[in-house]
Write a structure and sequence with these properties.
Layout (H helix, E strand, L loop, with lengths): L1 E4 L43 E4 L2 E4 L9 E4 L4 E6 L13 E6 L3 E9 L10 E3 L5 E4 L9 E8 L4 E4 L6 H11 L5 E8 L5 E8 L5 E7 L6 H14 L4 H9 L1 E5 L4 H5 L22 H15 L4 E11 L3 E5 L10 H12 L7 E5 L7 H9 L2 E8 L4 H20 L1
Parallel strand pairs: 1-9, 5-7, 14-15, 14-16, 16-19, 17-18
Antiparallel strand pairs: 2-3, 3-6, 4-5, 6-11, 7-10, 8-9, 8-11, 12-13, 13-15, 17-19
The chain binds zinc ion (ZN).
Length: about 400
């Protein structure tokens, strides 16, 4: 659960969250260009406790990122945040704990490596489970970001988004696998040996199959929240879901980059590569695992990959689709789905942009389309999209998809 609060009374200004403002339609990203996906070294963080006077910071936990602390003056502390390697997408993830033997109000400045800009407005937690957002205007993406913080002897967690690591996702997978028609397994291992979890939901003897993937990019927690709500609806008790599970087999891969997630990476896997650019060359074990899994489960068994959905986070909600000109059949399927979704959510206007226009498939969703002919798209959720809306949209999107797939 996340609530909006204002911790920064000392700084005075009260900001409106970005999503409350009238804003131009989010343009999304430009068509994806190929980049090298050859393994490159990543810089591991020094892990431990950074003690500065009476105040201590620590990063020795999964998902943490804190590369250094400097005291600038009596009250101002600068937290250095650097990425696992460069060049890299400017998505500075940070997560650390802070406490003080002497209760005091400090100002914490997040200082990013050159060329990077603030993306995630800070969240705080007392237990690492329930988080509160420090209300802040991040619309301008400054090069560094300062906010006041009351520190006491009780540990305070500070993170870019609600901390959601391998352990959290594995717990969710385990819980879901207790439901009817749901089985959990590990389908492969990451470069550093972490399990890549898989859920099989539905009828194992059905030839009609669906793939749902997530967390290729470590900081994209809102994408994970959307995946979770979507999958829980497919695995849920409704008659619609039971009928879908009778007719289809759904593969869910909710954590394709566990090394990046647990090491607090900004973007890459432990091979220093953006996994969602490796679906042409397959130089990384995680993307190879997806390819090999589909070869075995779809191609070799003569099954059909009907639908593919890859969850991510970005500036605002958007769907990245395949250029309809490339589709041989059922061009209306995804537009019909998004239109039905729109009619169920008053005031919601789906933002759709074709991003795969042909050529090599650098991304997972374009690979699902080109290699298997699946109806395929990317489900992007804004970093700041209100969490109750993420949950509601996921549920409705899953319901409307089920209706179309059963038609
Ligand atoms: Zn992403």
């Amino acid at each position: 659960m996340i609530q909006k609060i204002l911790l920064g009374l000392a700084l005075g200004a009260v900001f409106q969250p970005a999503f409350a403002q009238k804003k131009p339609v989010f343009k999304g990203q430009e068509p994806i260009q190929g980049v090298s996906t050859q393994t490159r070294p990543v810089q591991k963080q020094w892990k431990g406790i950074f003690k500065v006077g009476t105040i201590s910071f620590r990063n020795d936990f999964e998902g943490a990122r804190l590369n250094g602390i400097t005291q600038v003056n009596d009250t101002l502390f600068s937290a250095l945040i650097t990425s696992e390697n460069t060049p890299i997408n400017s998505s500075p993830w940070y997560a650390f704990k802070v406490w003080s033997s002497l209760p005091q109000r400090i100002v914490l400045q997040l200082t990013y490596q050159q060329g990077s800009r603030h993306r995630y407005s800070p969240k705080v937690s007392r237990d690492g489970r329930s988080w509160q957002e420090i209300t802040a205007d991040t619309a301008k993406n400054p090069v560094s970001f300062s906010f006041p913080l009351q520190v006491t002897k009780d540990t305070l967690w500070v993170a870019a988004q609600e901390l959601t690591t391998s352990r959290h996702i594995q717990d969710w997978v385990k819980k879901l696998s207790k439901q009817p028609d749901v089985k959990a397994e590990t389908f492969a291992r990451s470069r550093e040996g972490r399990p890549l979890p898989l859920l099989r939901i539905g009828n194992p003897s059905s030839r009609k199959r669906i793939i749902i993937t997530g967390r290729q990019h470590p900081p994209e927690v809102t994408g994970h929240l959307a995946l979770k709500g979507f999958v829980e609806t497919l695995a849920g008790p409704s008659d619609l879901a039971k009928r879908l599970r009778n007719q289809y087999l759904i593969y869910v891969m909710p954590l394709l980059n566990p090394d990046g997630v647990d090491e607090g990476h900004w973007r890459h896997n432990s091979g220093g590569v953006d996994l969602n650019r490796d679906y042409a060359e397959f130089q990384q074990p995680e993307s190879r695992a997806v390819r090999d899994f589909l070869t075995k489960e779809i191609r070799d068994s003569g099954s059909q990959l009907v639908f593919g959905l890859d969850f991510h986070s970005t500036g605002d909600d958007i769907y990245y689709t395949v250029d309809p000109k490339l589709m041989k059949a059922n061009r209306d399927f995804i537009p019909a789905w998004l239109n039905n979704l729109k009619s169920r959510l008053p005031g919601y206007e789906p933002n759709v942009k074709p991003l795969y226009l042909g050529g090599p498939t650098f991304t997972a969703y374009s690979y699902f389309f080109r290699e298997y002919g699946a109806q395929s798209l990317v489900y992007e959720i804004g970093d700041q999209t209100p969490r109750p809306f993420i949950a509601e949209k996921s549920k409705v999107a899953a319901e409307e998809l089920m209706k179309l797939l059963l038609n």
